[in-house]
Amino acid sequence: MKNIALKTTIILTNTLYLISTNAYSDGPIDGDIYGRMNVSYQHEKNEADGDVWKLASNASRLGFKGKSLVDNQIKIVYQIEYGVEVDDGDKNGQTISQRDTFIGIAGAWGKLIAGRITIPFKEAKGNIDRFNDLQGELGKIIDGEERINNIVQYSSENLLGALVSTIAIVPGENTKDSNKNGPADGVSGSLVFDNKKLYFALAFNSNIKEQDQWRLATSWQWGTPANGSLSVGALYQHSKINNDSQLTYADGQYSTDAYGFSSQFTHQKNTFKAQYILSNRSISLSDARQFSFAIEHKLGERSTLYAYYADRDSAEAAQSNSYLAIGLKHNF
Predict the structure, then answer these.
(1) What is the pTM for the complete model shown?
(2) Is residue 217 packed enough to be buried (19+ CB in 10 Å), middle (13-18) or exposed (0-12)?
């Protein structure tokens, strides 16, 4: 198994290298290799394991994305992205895991893509989730933070200026419902307004992971990082189990509400973040609350040193945890 994983990694690395060396040659191809390394050394405390020290890889990734001009009005867009485990090289028995990977076409009318994609419902949170990819993120106590296979998605992109509409459909093969095998048994969509200062989003899920959901998110920003900028955000989410499903939430109920509040203050190279999430129930937790606080310092244009604390409490004592971590993130 380890030999297979090693061969897979070597093939992927060589392929990306060959693509990148040709991506900037004469012709219509425009491609980039990109990635993120995000590692934290952290102390975890919970009922099950007690006190544990860990080195954690926080959604580190390696990817290739590009576009190829077909004519003056249409281009092919594509992306291949994999998660990599910087700490121990293991992700549920695999060395690498697939993240957003798709191919499609784009033009002045918008963008149409198909593949494995983060759903519009999740993306609609914008930057309100200040702890995305860390233990303080929304997805630890709220459902709906999904990346799903077999999606066809349209986005209006810049067609409507600061207002962007996105709709994604999932064929019946991925709704886990044997009675539904139609062309769009699962649907996720969003309407987002973003002028860089004011952000407002309304999103919904219909029969995604056997749930129907809608989400309202907003944030405001004042000032500039050079002189001091403040951003505050809020989120409300309502979810219910699909009528045809046998699924229930952690406490046996069929509907739930969640609320989130976050803030961020940046002055030059230093940033302070705070976030509080409250959820009545989810598939795995009930009566859950989560508070997080972080300090970040930019080491350069692409690198950030950070420290954070997150505390999660719920009716399920075994899943009530606290985390204290120091980490380093580098984008390339």
Answers:
(1) 0.87
(2) buried
- 233, 126 contact by CB (below 8 A): yes
Strand segments, DSSP code E, in the chain are: 29-46, 50-57, 61-69, 75-84, 96-98, 101-107, 110-118, 147-155, 163-170, 186-194, 198-208, 211-224, 228-241, 255-267, 270-281, 286-298, 303-313, 321-331
Q: Which domain holds residue 150?
A: 2-331
Q: How many residues does the chain have?
A: 332
Domain count, the chain: 1
Cβ neighbours of 6 (radius 10 Å): 12
Question: For position 26, which CATH number holds?
Answer: 2.40.160.10
C-alpha span between 313 and 74 (Å, rounded):
50
Residue 175 has a CB neighbour count (10 Å cut-off) of 24
Burial zone of 303 (CB within 10 Å; 0-12 exposed, 13-18 middle, 19+ buried): middle
Tens of pLDDT along the chain (332 residues) come to 445 444 444 555 555 455 444 443 333 457 899 999 999 999 999 877 789 999 999 999 999 999 998 888 899 999 999 999 999 888 777 778 999 999 999 999 999 999 999 999 999 999 999 999 999 999 999 999 999 999 999 999 878 889 999 999 998 775 555 556 778 889 999 999 999 899 999 999 999 999 999 999 999 999 998 899 999 999 999 999 988 888 999 999 999 999 999 999 999 999 999 999 999 999 999 999 999 999 999 999 999 999 999 999 999 867 789 999 999 999 99
**How many angstroms separate the Cα of 45 from the Cα of each of 56, 131, 243, 292?**
14, 19, 38, 15
**CA–CA separation, 166 and 164 (whole Å):** 7
